[in-house]
Design a protein that fits this description.
Helix 1 (10-21) runs parallel beside helix 2 (35-45), helix 3 (67-77) packs parallel to helix 4 and helix 8 (165-175) packs across helix 12 (297-316). This protein has a seven-stranded mixed beta sheet. The protein has a six-stranded parallel beta sheet with strand order 3-2-1-4-5-6, sandwiched between helices. The longest helix is centred in the last third of the chain and has 20 residues, at 297-316. It is built from twelve helices and 13 strands. The chain is of the alpha/beta class and 327 residues long.
Length: 327
Amino acid sequence: MRVGLLGLGRIGAFHAATLAAHPEVAELVVWDADEVRAKEVAARVGARVGDAFQADAVVVATPTSTHAELILRACEAGVPVFCEKPVAPDIGETTRVVEAVERSGNLVHIGFQRRFDAGYAAARRALHGGELGVLHRIHMLTADPRPPAPDYIPLSGGIFRDCHIHDFDVLRWVTGREVEQVYATGANRGEAFFAEAGDVDTSAALLTLDDGTLVTMQGSRYNGAGYDVRMELAGTLGTVAVGLDDRVPLTSAEPGVAFPGGAPWPDFGARFEPAYVAEIDAFLGTVRGGGQSLCTVQDALAALRVAEAADLSRRTGRPARVAEVAA
C-alpha cells in the first residue's frame, strides 16, 4: 500500500524508518514544514516528498496544534489515519473531532504506544486471566531523566496532559475500568520555567476507579538515574510489575543484590521502540484487513478527561471527579 507521513521530527523520523521497512508499504510519501528536513529523511529511508494524503493510509506526527485539522481532513477524504496523541489540546476540540469521526465512519487510530508494549500486554492478560485474584491496588510511575526544552512547556498542556495522559490511557486499557476521581498535587524543585508556565516538574496523584480500586501515581521531569516507567498491579493472589527489567534505573540498597545490572533506559524512544513499531504494524493490519481501531478517538477523549480532572485537582487542592470535566 501507499502510505503518507506528515511530520518528520523525532517521532516522525522514527515512524518513517518503520514504515519504509514494513513489508506492507510499497511506497512511502513524506511531508514536513521544513523542506530540507523532509528531503533529508526521504533520502535516508528511500521515500519521496509529496502530498501525503494521496495515499491508502496516512500517519500524522506533526505538532499538536495541527492534529485535529489533519484528522478531519483524513476523514473527509476517507483515508485511514494514525495520529500521535493528543487529538487536540482541550476537551471541546477533542469532542468535536470525536463527533466528526463517528459521523464519517473513518478508521482513526491514536498513538498511545504503551498498549503495544509487551509488559503492559502481559499485565493485562494476568489481570483478566485471574492470576492476580481480586485487584486491590495499582501504582504507576513515569519519570523523565531530564526536562524538555523550556519553550516546549508552555505549549505542552502541563505534566498531566502531556506526560501522564499515557498512564491514564494504559490504566484504562489494562484494567478495563474507568477513573472516577483524582486527587493530585505537584511541586517545582527545578527550573523556574515550569512554574512560569503554570506547570510542575514533580507530580503525585491518588485515583479511584469505578470499582473502588485505588491507584497511586508519581511523575518527575528530573529522574537523573534514567527513564523510568513502571506499573505495579497487586491482588489477592499475586503481583505483577511492568518495567521491572534489567534496564530499570534503580539501585538496590540491599547487600549482595546485583539486580538490575543493565544500562538504564536513556529516554522514551529507546524504552518503547518495539511498542512504536508494533502499533504501526497494528494500524496497517487494520487498514489492510478491516475492523475497529485499537485505540480510538473516544479512548483519547477519556484519557484527556482524566488529565483535566488531575490538573483541576492540582490547581484547586481538592479531589476532582472526572464527571466534572465532561464535555
